[in-house]
Design brief:
With 270 residues, the chain is an alpha/beta fold. The protein has a single domain, classed as TIM Barrel. It is built from 11 helices and 8 strands. α6 links the parallel β4 and β5. The structure holds 3-methyl-2-oxobutanoic acid and sodium ion. The site of sodium ion has 4 residues, from loops. Its EC number is 2.1.2.11. Its cofactor is Mg(2+).
Length: 270
């Protein structure tokens, strides 16, 4: 691929080859996934993953701008989507537009993501009609953790109808895709079959139109806890620990730095 996809290209992948996506928060990690991921999400998970916060509620617009700028510098062939943080869009369409425009202008993101279903449909329509592509996010919406009462599976039993209504509402409002987080597999499949926009699963179903994971989770870098839906494709946290210990050992043994790491006063070129 030569150029980054646009929201229309993502939309056109409905029912096709699954969309591949991950979160990123820094330039080097964005470079690793550039051209492999269809889109890269600057998630508000940055607060927990990189800043040691206990929820995403404390993440600010300024933090999203800073990390969004960093990620954008690492991307040439993947689209960048950026999360609207808690408190930056819930008041209404005008507030949402102002802050979404700020995020896109400052970071160069191609789209924003916001949490919510039926109750956010008006805002999603307002943004999309005014040039801001929106990815919706329903199911477990971490910014609502205090009203949801915990990070539990959403949409079980009677709650399934409401979640289907949420998916239909955000699609009708013009969202170009919708993240389904922590919903039962059968419900995720029903939503995927029902709506005309791509569903992006995280703790949902392999039949979704795409998948997303938090990059530090799938690399084994974030190890404070592991959700059931996380698969660790590498153990970089363990590797880092071993590397730090090896460094400490060599420093104390005076075997690092070795001759090739130090400078002679004779040859100015080395
Ligand atoms: O912030 C985030 O990482 C997300 C993804 C898990 C979808 O919203
Ligand atoms: Na998020």
């Amino acid at each position: 691929r030569k150029t980054a996809p646009m929201p229309q290209d993502i939309l056109a992948r409905k029912g096709g080859t699954p969309l591949v996506s991950l979160t990123a928060y820094t330039t080097p990690m964005a470079q690793v996934m550039d051209g492999i991921c269809d889109f890269v999400l600057v998630g508000d998970s940055v607060g927990m993953v990189l800043h040691g916060l206990t929820s995403t509620l404390d993440v600010t617009l300024d933090m999203m701008v800073l990390h969004g700028k960093a990620v954008k510098r690492g991307l040439k062939q993947s689209m960048m989507v950026i999360d609207m943080p808690f408190g930056s869009y819930e008041e209404g369409p005008q507030q949402a537009f102002r802050n979404a425009a700020h995020l896109m202008r400052e970071t160069g993101a191609g789209a924003v993501k916001l949490e919510g279903g039926v109750e956010m449909a008006e805002t999603i329509a307002f943004l999309t009609k005014r040039g801001i592509p929106v990815m919706a996010h329903i199911g477990l919406t971490p910014q609502s953790i205090h009203t949801l009462g915990g990070y539990k599976v959403q949409g079980r039993g009677e709650a399934a109808d409401q979640m289907m209504a949420d998916a239909v509402a955000v699609a009708k409002a013009g969202a170009f895709s919708v993240v389904l987080e922590k919903v039962p597999e059968t419900l995720a499949d029903q939503i995927t079959a029902e709506v005309a926009i791509p569903t992006i699963g995280i703790g949902a179903s392999a039949n979704c139109d795409g998948q997303i994971l938090v990059v530090d989770d799938m690399l084994g870098l974030f190890t404070a806890f592991k959700a059931k839906f996380v698969k660790r494709f590498a153990q970089l946290g363990d590797d880092a620990k071993l590397a730090v210990q090896a460094y400490a050992d060599e420093v104390q043994a005076r075997s690092f730095p070795a001759p090739e790491h130090v400078f002679s006063d004779k040859n100015p070129n080395t």
